[in-house]
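Human
Can I borrow your eye for a moment on a structure tokenisation matter? Give me a protein, with the fold worked out from its sequence. Write it directly below this note and I will take it from there.

Assistant
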Amino acid sequence: MDEALKQIGERLKGLRESLEVSVQEMAETCGVTEEKYLKMEGGESDLAVSRLYKLSRKYGISLDVLMFGEEPRMGAYFLTRNGKGMSVERREAYKYQSLASGFRGRKADPFLVTVEPKSDDEPVDMDTHSGQEFDMVWQGRMALTLGGKHFVLEPGDTIYFDASQPHCMRALDNRTLKFLAIIF
């Protein structure tokens, strides 16, 4: 995980330097302090996909380039075999597997997200990003906080929401949670 975070941080720094954007502007786009942003660039801090998504949209760069260092190449279709999608662990408890990383010009970003259980007293960061999100639970149970509401989703349950609302997910029952997340 540490190596992947460092590589993403290097790509963030390269993007900032090539566009001649200040640390302050990058931090504001991500919604974090300059200190936190510099830790992200150094691979020392959490890299929420929502923050990478905000940067990709603002600066017109593919989310895949930031996450995986590769530009999508396919235009007619892109097949991802079971367990073979490019992945990144953005936090100790979260793993994002891209299901369409090679398809260029896509209108949505689908991920298989694996969340490891945490103790109930560990804080969970709320995320926001532009657009909309669709989540479908495949395995385990999800505690979802969305705005001021709390939901429990079971396998097969889905939710579609405005992703600009603060939200977070947590695995329940001390079991691994897997869900399909599509960001539009």
Summary: The radius of gyration is 16 Å. The longest helix spans residues 2-19. Residues 1 and 125 are 19 Å apart (CA to CA). The chain has two domains: 2-68, 87-183.
